[in-house]
Design brief:
- The chain has 5 helices and 15 strands.
- The termini are close together.
- It has 253 residues and is of the alpha/beta class.
Length: 253
């Protein structure tokens, strides 16, 4: 069995629009605190060392994460939208398939025909429960501010089409599931149509699904299907998202 890491690091990075702050607390800094639990002193600990720890200030949508229906809108299909801790775990483990969209221009929309063409190119037919991973190549800019504006994005129609095929969890290797914000802004200013704002996310107003944002390393996979994906989100009570370490699992390598 071989496991491939499909996640970006959780770290302070120019790629994170919503800042992440990480303070690494070393063994000396914690020694007195650790000793206090045992009625001991720092001198009672080996070379005065406590435990290492970390203080992290982070939003739920930093790093690689799974968006919950609650993130998209307060309701889904007329009922209260579910939060990340309420989603069935079965959604987050399944057969994976990578659809290559690296030919799509920066900021463009990925539509139904693009998905169908990508599936035809690899000879794959979607089935309910598959986890679809959209490859734009934006992950190669991780660590740079340009990452926020990189990659293509999913259209509402393409998102709806995936759900209609029985796909409940899908993901992308870009900052967000939709087009980059600059591209949505251009479309809105050109058309005056507010429905273009966050159109793919807003599919969740009617149809329940989850998507993963900030995937990475899809180009490292030896083939586009024939592997399992595990993407279990952290159980953040009431959360609009949960951080995840996404992996692809190949049993025959």
């Amino acid at each position: 069995m071989k496991i491939f890491d499909l996640s970006v690091p959780t770290e302070m990075s120019p790629s994170e629009v919503e800042p992440v702050q990480v303070e690494h607390i070393d063994h000396k800094q914690t020694a007195a605190f650790m000793a206090s639990f045992f009625g001991a002193t720092v001198d009672d600990l080996p070379e005065g060392n406590g435990w290492a720890n970390d203080q992290v200030t982070i939003r739920a949508h930093a790093g690689t994460h799974v968006d919950a229906p609650w993130h998209y809108y307060p309701t889904c299909g007329g009922a209260r939208a579910r939060t990340i801790d309420e989603m069935p775990l079965e959604w987050f483990y399944g057969d994976g398939v990578v659809l290559d969209m690296r030919h799509k221009p920066r900021g463009s929309l990925i539509d139904i025909d693009d998905l169908r063409a990508a599936l035809d190119a690899i000879g794959y037919t979607l089935k309910p429960g598959d986890i679809v991973l959209i490859q734009t190549g934006a992950d190669k800019l991780w660590g740079q501010a340009e990452y926020f504006a990189a990659g293509a994005g999913m259209s509402a129609a393409a998102t709806r089409w995936l759900i209609e095929q029985g796909i409940r969890t899908m993901g992308i290797d870009a900052w967000g599931w939709d087009q980059p914000f600059w591209a949505m802004k251009e479309r809105f200013q050109q058309t005056g149509d507010p429905s273009v704002i966050w159109e793919a996310h807003r599919v969740g107003r009617d149809l329940e699904y989850c998507h993963i944002e900030k995937l990475a390393n899809l180009d490292a996979l030896p083939r586009p299907f024939g592997f399992k994906v595990a993407c279990f989100p952290v159980k953040l009570t009431g959360g609009s998202a949960g951080w995840t370490r996404v992996v692809a699992i190949f049993d025959d390598l």
